Structure formats: structure tokens, C-alpha cells
């Protein structure tokens, strides 16, 4: 559940169109081809380098990247490996990787926590690829892998993003709402859909819904999403994106699974559902779906209207969207309490905040920004309530209004707003300490923050219970 910054160099065009002048020549090109049920990736590299690192990697629970699980190199002289958490193509025995490399791909759905899910699979056999998974950066030595910055985005832009061609022997692919034959993309930040899918235009949003998706989920989207978005808009002003497309995939009724995953891109929301646990709309599952829709919709404000300055600050957008989703659900359904979800955020944040929360993603603790961000938002909301009787959206409204022009809601702006509504600089210090240093006793730190902000709670050993 993440969101992108606006893709500055978004281009997507039929093959014949000219390249935009400002994009540097790519060191690599890629052709993704689907034919007779099989997938191939043909890479062409423009220089000799012993190591090529993929611009986005995220190891799965076994420490190996998702590509290593799904891709097989067919060309001799090169290996696909995960090194220092990065997926790389490496020439054997230190030799340069071959200039032309073919891989066989077996795309399957995997929900990444800190990156866009690379592939969405539909029950119709359609497959949607995240457009940015083929960017390659050449490195002179394998040693360079150890000292790469966390975010390789600037290196991709400097080296030149891989120009990827999307080719389906069965016909046109769906990209940015259009059916195109063999389109190219460089840095578009979207999903490219191969196979059958119907785009249903709508006033508030257009949808691409897997026909196998349990009907109640699609119905929930068409009834709940406009209501919660209306609620946000009434309180916060317009979101950053008008009339987005929502793509909903259904991986199937996998036993003992209840999975809802999603992300927000410029103009596109994707939601992937899986598992027998979401077949029937029990109250719990329905509230989960609504909460999920409310979280993703919230990113049109926290992420669309304003976004964070650096990924170290994604607690602002993720925790903020979590609390927006709870309050949005309560506005639409007063019977929803939301206590258990907020309690889970407190519990999880206590587990994460031993170490600096800002850099939690470096340790693979991707949920820390959601949980601790919601804890910080809850403190800010309560300070707001004390000051004006308002709620979380009242805290956010002036912050969003003041930062629409430059589009950035920085950590300092967020914390300064907390100073203003609380009148107590100790709250900022509590949060800064958890962000930058972590705490020896996170439960005490959070209880202290709640105490000062006025969040009703009690301490129970190493736990902080919301009351
Ligand atoms: Zn999110």
C-alpha cells in the first residue's frame, strides 16, 4: 500500500512516436513479450558492465528478490541473483554481462510491502505488469552494491530509464486507459494490462474489474468509494487526482487467505484481492474492504494533493491515510468503532520504535510507518480536539491547503502544525526522538506522548491500551 510521487518523465507511446528530448539515452532496453501463454524478456545492454542492478528490489521472506522466484535466465554467461537485497544480473566470473540477455518469466502475484506489486493477475488470465520493474543501472564492480543509496530512483533517471516495449501476440495491451499495439514506456509509473479486460467509464471513477471478483467487493467499491471520497473532499477540498481509474484484480479463492493489497499511482488505483476469506461479506470483511478503499482513496489527498519530501517521511502519508480511513468509515457508518485497528497500530508501533522509525524500511520493517504514523496522527488529532473540538481532518485541512502550491508536506511543516495546536513543544520532541533515535522503552514513549496530547489510554506492562 504505497503511492508514487508524480512521475515527472511520464511517457508512453506507440513504437513509432519520437522519443522525448529530455530523457537520457537508456543503457538498456527491454522487450516483454507474451505469446502462446509464455512470457519472455529480451534485454539489450549498450555497454560492458559486470553487474547490472534493478532499480527496484524487495526481497521476500527468504531474503531473495521476487524476480529470482519468477524469472529464469536462458542466456549463458549471466546469472540473476539477489545481492545485498538487490536483484542483479551478474556476468559469470566477473566478466561483463552479455549485451543481449533472454529471460523466461512466470509472472505471479506477490504483494510487496514497500514497492508496487510487480504483477497483478486476473481470473481471466489477464496480467498487469507494473511498468517500472525493468530499469537497470550498470555498475563497475559488485562492491558498489554495498554502498548504493536506498532509493535508486535518481540513479535510474541519471543513467536513463530502460525503454520497455510491451508486446502481446494476441493483440493490443491496455495502458493508461488506451489499447495500444507494442507501446513503449520509459518512466510512466502505471500498470500495463495484457489480455481481456473491460474498462467501464464512470463519473467519479472508471473501473477495470476482474469478472471473477466476488460481486460484493465490486458493489462495495461503487457504493462506498464515492461516499468516502465525498466526505474527504467536503472536509479537505479537492483531491489531487480527478476521475481516476480503479483496477481490481482477483487472484482466486486461495485457501486460508484473506488478502487485500493496493497502491495509488497518478490517475490509477490498483487493488488486488485474493483468498477464500473474502468470498463472503461478513461485517468484519466488509469493514476491512471499506477501510482499505478509504486508505487508498485518502492518498488522493495525502500523496496526491500533497506528498512527503522523502521516503523517510512516508509515516505522514501512510499513518495519515490509516487514520483518515478509520474516521471516514466512522462518518459513513457510525456503528464502526475503529478501536481495534487503532489499538493494532499502537501495539505494532511499540514493536518497531526500539529503533529509529524514519529508517525502518532499511531494516525491512515496512509496517512501521503505517503503525507509528497512525500513532502520531492520533496524538495530533487529540491535540486538535483539545484546541478546537476538531478531528484528524481538521488537523490536516490547513496543512493541505497551505502546501497545495508546492505539493510537499514536509516533516517540519507537520510537526510545526502540532506545535501550534498543542502549544506544547514536548510532543514534537517525543515524535522526533522516535523518528530519529528510537526508544529504549517504546511503550513508555508512546504513553508519554499520549499523556501530553490527551489521548485516553492506560499502561499495562509493556502495553499501551487505548481507552
Ligand atoms: Zn497507503
Largest sheet: 7 strands, mixed
Report the span from N to C terminus: 28 Å
**Helix coverage percent of residues?**
25-40%
Please identify the structural class as seen in this structure: alpha+beta
Strand content is 15-25%
Keywords for this structure?
6-stranded mixed β-sheet, 7-stranded mixed β-sheet, binds zinc ion, 24 strands, 3 domains, 467 residues, Zincin-like, Neutral Protease, domain 2, alpha+beta
Describe the protein in words:
- The protein contains 11 helices and 24 strands.
- Helix 3 crosses helix 5 (314-332) and helix 4 (283-298) packs across helix 5 (314-332).
- The protein starts with a strand and ends with a strand.
- Strands 2-16-13-3-4-9-6 form a 7-stranded mixed beta sheet. It has a 6-stranded mixed beta sheet with strand order 1-21-22-20-19-18, with helices on one face. Strands 10-11-17-14-15 form a 5-stranded antiparallel beta sheet, with no helix packed on it.
- With 467 residues, the protein is of the alpha+beta class.
- The protein binds zinc ion.
- The site of zinc ion (ZN) has 7 residues, from strand 1 and helix 5.
Secondary structure topology:
Elements: E1 2-3, E2 12-13, E3 28-35, E4 38-45, E5 51-54, H1 66-70, E6 71-73, E7 78-83, E8 86-91, E9 100-105, E10 119-121, E11 127-130, E12 136-139, H2 153-159, E13 163-168, E14 173-175, E15 178-180, E16 184-185, E17 191-194, E18 199-200, E19 206-209, H3 215-236, E20 245-250, E21 259-265, E22 268-274, H4 283-298, H5 314-332, H6 339-352, H7 368-388, H8 392-403, H9 411-422, H10 425-436, H11 442-453, E23 457-460, E24 463-466
Helix pairs in contact: 3-4, 3-5, 4-5, 5-7, 6-7, 7-8, 7-11, 10-11
Bound molecules: zinc ion.
Amino acid at each position: 500500500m504505497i503511492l508514487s510521487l508524480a512521475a515527472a518523465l511520464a511517457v508512453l507511446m506507440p513504437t513509432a512516436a519520437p522519443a522525448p528530448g529530455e530523457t537520457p539515452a537508456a543503457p538498456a532496453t527491454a522487450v516483454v513479450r507474451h505469446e502462446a501463454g509464455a512470457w519472455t524478456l529480451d534485454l539489450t545492454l549498450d555497454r560492458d558492465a559486470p553487474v547490472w542492478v534493478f532499480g527496484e528490489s524487495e526481497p521476500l521472506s527468504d531474503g531473495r528478490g521476487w524476480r529470482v522466484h519468477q524469472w529464469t535466465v536462458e542466456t549463458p554467461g549471466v546469472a540473476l541473483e539477489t545481492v545485498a537485497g538487490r536483484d542483479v544480473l551478474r556476468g559469470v566470473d566477473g566478466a561483463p554481462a552479455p549485451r543481449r540477455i533472454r529471460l523466461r518469466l512466470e509472472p505471479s502475484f506477490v504483494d510487496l510491502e514497500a514497492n508496487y506489486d510487480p504483477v497483478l493477475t486476473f481470473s481471466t488470465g489477464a496480467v498487469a505488469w507494473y511498468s517500472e520493474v525493468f530499469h537497470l543501472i550498470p555498475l563497475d564492480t559488485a562492491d558498489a552494491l554495498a554502498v548504493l543509496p536506498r532509493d535508486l530512483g535518481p540513479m535510474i533517471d541519471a543513467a536513463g530509464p530502460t525503454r520497455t516495449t510491451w508486446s502481446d501476440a494476441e493483440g493490443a495491451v491496455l495502458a493508461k486507459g488506451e489499447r495500444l499495439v507494442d507501446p513503449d514506456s520509459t518512466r510512466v509509473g502505471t500498470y500495463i494490462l495484457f489480455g481481456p479486460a473491460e474498462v467501464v467509464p464512470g463519473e467519479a471513477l472508471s473501473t477495470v474489474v476482474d469478472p471473477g471478483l466476488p460481486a460484493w467487493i465490486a458493489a462495495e467499491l461503487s457504493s462506498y468509494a464515492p461516499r468516502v471520497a465525498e466526505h474527504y473532499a467536503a472536509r479537505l477540498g479537492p483531491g489531487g487526482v480527478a476521475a481516476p481509474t480503479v483496477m481490481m484484480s482477483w487472484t482466486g479463492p486461495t485457501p486460508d487467505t484473506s488478502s487485500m493489497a493496493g497502491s495509488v499511482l497518478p490517475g490509477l488505483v490498483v487493488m488486488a484481492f485474493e483468498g477464500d476469506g473474502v468470498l463472503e461479506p461478513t461485517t468484519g470483511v466488509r469493514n476491512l474492504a471499506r477501510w482499505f478503499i478509504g486508505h487508498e482513496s485518502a492518498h488522493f489527498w495525502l500523496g496526491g494533493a500533497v506528498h512527503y519530501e522523502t521516503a523517510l517521511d512516508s509515516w505522514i502519508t501512510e499513518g495519515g491515510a490509516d487514520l483518515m480511513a478509520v474516521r471516514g468509515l466512522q462518518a459513513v457508518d457510525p456503528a464502526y468503532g475503529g478501536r481495534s485497528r487503532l489499538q493494532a497500530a499502537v501495539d505494532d508501533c511499540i514493536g518497531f520504535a526500539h529503533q529509529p522509525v524514519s529508517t525502518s524500511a532499511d531494516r525491512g520493517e515496512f509496517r512501521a510507518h503505517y503503525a507509528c504514523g497512525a500513532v502520531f496522527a492520533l496524538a495530533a488529532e487529540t491535540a486538535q480536539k483539545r484546541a478546537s473540538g476538531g478531528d484528524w481532518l481538521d488537523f490536516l485541512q490547513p496543512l493541505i491547503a497551505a502546501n497545495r502550491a508546492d505539493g510537499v508536506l514536509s516533516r517540519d511543516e507537520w510537526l510545526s502544525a502540532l506545535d501550534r495546536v498543542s502549544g506544547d513543544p514536548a510532543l514534537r520532541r517525543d515524535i522526533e526522538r522516535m523518528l530519529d533515535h528510537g526508544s529504549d522503552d517504546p511503550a513508555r514513549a508512546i504513553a508519554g506522548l499520549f499523556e501530553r496530547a490527551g489521548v485516553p489510554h492506560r499502561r499495562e506492562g509493556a502495553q499501551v491500551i487505548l481507552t
